[in-house]
Amino acid sequence: MKTILVTGGSGFIGRNLCDRLASLVEEQDLEVIVLSRSPIEAAKVLPSSVRVISDLTELCQPVDVLINLAGEPIADRRWSDKRKAIIAQSRIQTTQALYEYFAGVNKPPSIVISGSAVGYYGGGLANNQKVTEEAMIEPNFSSQLCAAWEDAAQQFERLGSRVCFLRTGIVLGKQGALSKLLPAFKLGLGGPIASGQQWMPWVHIEDVVEIIMFAIESDISGPINCTAPQPVTNREFAKTLGKVLKRPAIAPMPAVVVKLLFGQMGDELMIQGQSVIPQKLQRQGYQFKYSDLNAALRQLLMKEH
Ligand SMILES: NC(=O)c1ccc[n+]([C@@H]2O[C@H](COP(=O)([O-])OP(=O)(O)OC[C@H]3O[C@@H](n4cnc5c(N)ncnc54)[C@H](OP(=O)(O)O)[C@@H]3O)[C@@H](O)[C@H]2O)c1
Hints:
The protein is of the alpha/beta class. It has helices spanning 12-22, 39-45, 81-103, 141-154, 177-186, 205-217, 234-245, 255-271, 279-283, 293-301, and strands at residues 2-7, 30-35, 51-53, 65-68, 111-117, 130-131, 162-168, 170-172, 199-200, 202-204, 222-226, 232-233, 275-276. The structure holds NADP nicotinamide-adenine-dinucleotide phosphate (NAP).
């Protein structure tokens, strides 16, 4: 039997992943375990075949695959110094604690797939350069956070684990960023943010799940840009979303308003962006389900309009 441990399994990506893993439990003789701070709440949103634990000492068998997605939400509110510390610690200390636990067991996980984000590459504004896994970093809070998170996970290599970092773009699904944008766009009040020239590396939730499955099954390792092959500018994103919803999407949100409302968080997550492309996944032969934004949004919003 293969055991897969997921942290952050009760979240947006984690729930979709656990649904997929649960569908394979019998066929592939899997046990799926989620580590949660609130196991009773987590169990309510997870398939019944998933075992939920609140402490690593509850593990009673070796873990073959560790999928590490836990972390305080990044885009929920303005970043005060205190908030930034919580966002960072919730990822780095959680990952460090996992490492320390598994460094002390006889059989550490052979595969570790750990979270990161396109924020790793830092501020890019309207930079048209294609950002592959080898790109240079332009430092800001997001890039420092992702780098420290990846460093914490990379320690697993010392235990002999194959380690992947998912530099994930904006995940489009029923929850997440899209659910926050929809109310304004449905009212015809959506539109480009700031210049609209900043890149938005997006990815459909089904691809995120399949990319994790691909990372388990293949021999891929190191950083992986978990984004669709065709990133769009923010202006193009707003136009496509408006078209799919059959609503005008021309109401711009000026940069000054974004900075006033959201501070550094708005600057880094809404005004800056880079043209990230999934070079490694494409070279390794991963076939995207959704390469085209219009098709991805149509699939997600089919029942919405
Ligand atoms: N969604 C995106 O567009 C996106 C894009 C790039 C990167 N990512 C990264 O991918 C990971 C998963 O994303 P997601 O959208 O699924 O996140 P999410 O819905 O916010 O879920 C994250 C999970 O992490 C756990 N968590 C929350 N606060 C925590 C804290 N202070 N300390 C420890 N654990 C905490 C929670 O699980 P319990 O309450 O059960 O413990 C929660 O279910 C995140 O780390 C995120 O930064 C997401």
